[in-house]
Write a structure and sequence with these properties.
The chain has 420 residues and is α+β, with helices and mostly antiparallel strands. It contains 13 helices and 14 strands. It has three domains: 195 residues, no CATH class; 60 residues, no CATH class; 130 residues, no CATH class.
Length: 420
């Protein structure tokens, strides 16, 4: 430890480095490049992971959507092309038979799948907007951010068929004055008055949605548009530890049995599995992180080996000097410690510069993707990973320094003094 704070030791180390500037710089760059690659690739993987989490932060990670289409295979006396209609009763069956389902929200809409949007009037202002019939459980699957007072639809709204609505940001802008508070006011949807109970902040990535959407209680929707127990599609969230891909298979198989659809018909029930996409993204990010670790460590090892080589050459060139030091009373541990300290110092300098350079590159990437549609946010490497990388470099620097250090100690003073 005292050797580390010895001024003469550091003078000798810097003197050795100055004698071999070009060789030392080239070798140090090898180690620097390794930690640089690790930082950049790991940070890039983290940025991608963060970007998708931010883009879909308001949707349950383990979620999926299912809807009905037309049959493509004749079955049980029915012909091909039979339209399938999901029903509210399907929800109870799925909840009972698929225990991995945590939340399931039946949804229906006017204005997306062929039928015209709802006509909305407030005073002299009019517009057409998609009108959704929803249950409160939807907020458990896709978070509904209410940003101007108010609330989302609750159980009382659906049980009492209340004529209340939640409007989108664009709807507020187009139907209300700039500084007007919409909560508590009334709008007319297809000639029926609804009281505004909240203004929903629009978030991308929420599945079906637009900044002009209007949400009303499902029970009110079916009375307003006479849709009975029809359901447009199902939003489903599985438990965190569930296999959402298997949940998708189970849901589709059960819906096929309920609606007498051939098990071989892959088109009658459509689905979109957000959980599967998340799993693929996470797998890609983990793969990229692992690749960065392998490539980074391999490059660091190659660079550290290079440092060991130049130290071996340095020991060879300093044979007479080392012999003099030994003759003057330097102990083997002091000579060994100096060589190891030089190895660790070069490794640490290369590592710190690599980390700093990698951080600047990640910051540049982050700045370049700020105003784009690329799901990329805050590409960083956790501090423990950086500290771990530096620790590995110190260990490698110490181990590789032992070789030239042992070579220096093995030189006999009398033989070193004879060296020409």
């Amino acid at each position: 430890m005292m050797l580390m704070f010895n001024r003469d030791t550091w003078q000798e180390i810097f003197g050795s480095i100055k004698k071999n500037k070009a060789r030392t710089i080239i070798t140090v760059i090898g180690v620097l490049w390794g930690i640089f690659i690790y930082i950049v690739l790991s940070g890039a993987a983290k940025g991608l992971d963060n970007g998708f989490e931010e883009r879909f932060e308001d949707v349950a990670m383990n979620s999926m959507f299912a809807w009905a289409q037309q049959t493509s295979v004749p079955y049980a006396g029915f012909k091909t092309g039979r339209p399938i209609q999901l029903k509210l009763g399907d929800v109870q069956v799925l909840n009972t038979r698929v225990p991995e389902i945590q939340y399931i929200a039946p949804r229906i809409v006017k204005g997306v799948f062929g039928d015209g949007p709802g006509s909305v009037v407030r005073g002299q202002r009019t517009g057409t907007y998609n009108v959704y019939g929803d249950y409160p459980v939807l907020s458990k699957i896709a978070t509904q951010k209410i940003y101007i007072g108010g609330r989302f639809i609750n159980e009382g709204d659906t049980e009492e068929d209340r004529k209340v609505c939640v409007i989108g940001e664009r709807t507020k802008k187009e139907l209300f004055a700039k500084d007007e508070e919409p909560v508590g006011k009334y709008i007319r949807i297809d000639n029926v008055f609804f009281r505004v109970i909240g203004v929903k902040k629009y978030e991308e990535g929420g599945g079906f949605g637009d900044d002009g959407d209007i949400n009303i209680p499902f029970t009110t929707f079916k009375k307003l548009y006479n849709t009975g127990d029809n359901v447009g599609w199902l939003a489903i969230a599985a438990y965190d530890d569930a296999d959402v891909m298997q949940v998708e298979v189970d849901v589709k198989n059960i819906l096929k049995k309920i609606h007498q659809i051939s098990p071989e018909d892959d088109r009658a029930i459509g689905s979109f599995n957000l959980g599967e996409i998340f799993n693929k993204i996470n797998g890609f990010a983990k793969g990229l992180t692992f690749l960065s670790l392998v490539v980074g460590i391999a490059t660091i090892i190659a660079g550290v080996i290079g440092i060991g080589n130049i130290l071996l050459i340095s020991v060879k060139e300093r044979t007479k000097e080392l012999g003099v030091r030994r003759a003057l009373g330097a102990t083997p541990s002091e000579v060994r410690g100096q060589i190891i300290l030089e190895s660790v110092f070069l490794t640490m300098v290369a590592g710190i510069f690599g980390i700093v350079l990698g951080s600047f590159v990640l910051r540049g990437i982050d700045a370049a993707t700020q105003d784009t549609d690329i799901p990329y946010t805050n590409p960083t490497v956790p501090i423990p990973y950086v500290v771990g990388a530096l620790f590995i470099m110190v260990v490698l620097g110490t181990l590789i320094g032992l070789i030239p250090a042992q070579r220096a100690v093995s030189i006999k003073p009398i033989d070193a003094l004879r060296e020409e």
